[in-house]
Structure formats: C-alpha cells, structure tokens
Amino acid sequence: MPLPLTHPAVIKETLKGISFCILIFGAVVAFPLLGIFALLLLPLPVLFYRLKVGRNCGLAIVTVSFLILLLMTRGLAFDILYFGSLLMTGLFLGECLERHLDIQKTIGYTTALVTGSAFAAFFLYTLTQGQGMEAILTEYLGTYFKMTAEVYSEMGIEQGQIEQLNSAFMVILPGMFLISYISTIWLNILIIRNMLKKRGVELKSIDCLNRYRAPELLVWAVIGLGLALMLPVQPLKIIGINCMIVLMLVYFFQGIAVVSFYFQKKGTPMAFKVFCYSLIALQVYVLILVIGLGFFDNWINFRKINTAA
C-alpha cells in the first residue's frame, strides 16, 4: 500500500524532487545556452520520484515546482507553458511505465496527453491575456526571428537569405517541435532505465530498446507522404513534410537500435561506442545512413528478430 503524502519519508522524497527541478530551472536561467541541455532533463526528477514513491508524490512535485517557477518568473509567460509541459511529461511517462506499456504506446500516449494538456493551457492563457492564439504566437515568433536575424547578420548572411531561412523554419516548425519533444522523451527513458538498472529494477517494456521495430504499416505512410510531396498542392506538401520529419525520427530510433544491438552482441568497447555515437550526432551523412538502416531493416531484418537463429 502506498504511503500517504504526509508521511515523513514521502515528504523527504518530494522535497528532493522539487529541489532537482528548481536546480534545473536555475541552470536554465543562469546559463541560457548550456541551460537548454539541462532543460531536456526536467522530466527526469518527476519521473524518478513518481516511480519510486508514487503518483501523489509526482503530482506534488509537478504542482509545487510549477508554482515556484511562476514566482521565479514573476508571472505567467508563454515559455512557462513549455516548462510545465516538461514537468507533466515526467508524470505521464511514470504512469505509462508503471503500467508496462510498450515503448510506442508510452511515447504516443505521453505525447498526446501532454500536447493536449498544453493546448488547453495555452487556450486558457489566451483568455487571461485578452489575445488570440495567432496573435500571441506571431508576437513570440517575431521576437525569436529578431534575435536570430541579429545572429545571422553577425555571421555575414544577407537579409534575403535570412528571410528564406525564416520562411523554411515556419514550414517545418510543427515537425521540428515534435521531434524535439519526442527525442526529449526518449532521452529521459534511456536515463531512467539505466538509473533503475543500477538499483536492480528492470522494466521489461524499456529493457530491450535495441530490439525496437517500427510498425510495418509506417513504410506505406512514408511512400504515401513521398507521393504527396510531389503533388502541386501547397497545404498537402506542408502536412507531408512535417509528417515525414516525424517518421524519419521513428526510423532513426530503429536504426540506432540496430547499431546498439550489434554493439551489445559483439561486446564493443565503450570508447568505440562513444566515438560512433558522437559521429552519428555530429555528421549529418552518418545520421542519414542510420535512418536508412532503420527504414530498410523492415525488409532485411538485420537483427534476425522473430526468425530462427
């Protein structure tokens, strides 16, 4: 039976979770550039203590941390909604992992629940501001484009090229946001898996990620989207390219699972693994190769999964 929230041990663990969240907030504020990487770990304290102590502890960490964040920023702001979404991500991930859902359902449900909650919160935020969603987004993106324009100008990029870059960014913004968010979920799952393993706890649903395979149906989605991109219909192209960006991330996960599978099978030294993963992260050609590896794994079955060895 779970301990009540007022139990001294639960209070202690809850305060630890809140402290870690505040520490990450502080890193983001104190070191804006490096803080972006710290922000990726914001779901982790909530997720860890949600699994360790229970749902009430996770909810308390999310609620108190969010309120402290509001006090630190002295009011509600658009960015705060994203921070709140990351806190909720840890909570929903904990719910899915505790139910031993597979990795696809865990990521899919978490993404749907958090984006749905964020959209509802954004709608309520517009009511408090007396502005529509479009006006707030336009203002926010205008500030972002102004900042990036200054950086691009310092790099010697001409104004015409800056406008082209901004236009291209607007087209792929939904897809880029989703792959950024899903990558954050994946990163936190990898970290929590290792943390639990060190404590002797194994979750079967995330224990064998190097055997991950995307649903075969997605191959047809890629083919269909590829055909849609060739049609002279602009809205269809925008939808197609954003969906294609997300699917490429899915096949990247499958490709990196193939790489990880053979590293484990061959007992590859850690130093060589680090070198290869760094190469994948830094070299776009190697990254594309890994995506291709994941895509063609559906036909070639590099790991011989579900076949007689």
| Major sheet summary line | none
**Which structural class do you get from the secondary structure elements?**
mainly alpha
Radius of gyration: 21 Å
Quaternary status: single chain
**Quick one: how many beta strands?**
0
Strand content is under 5%
Uncertain segments:
none
Mean pLDDT: 86
Series of H and E elements = HHHHHHHHHHHHH
Compute the number of helices: 13
What would the principal axes of the Cα set say about the shape? globular
N-end to C-end Cα span:
44 Å
Please bin the fraction of helical residues.
over 70%
Q: What would you note in describing this structure?
A:
- By secondary structure, the protein is mainly alpha-helical.
- The chain has 13 helices and no strands.
- Helix 3 (43-53) packs antiparallel against helix 4 (55-73) and helix 3 runs parallel beside helix 8.
- The chain is globular and about 60 Å long.
- The N and C termini lie far apart (44 Å).
- The model has no long low-confidence stretch (mean pLDDT 86).
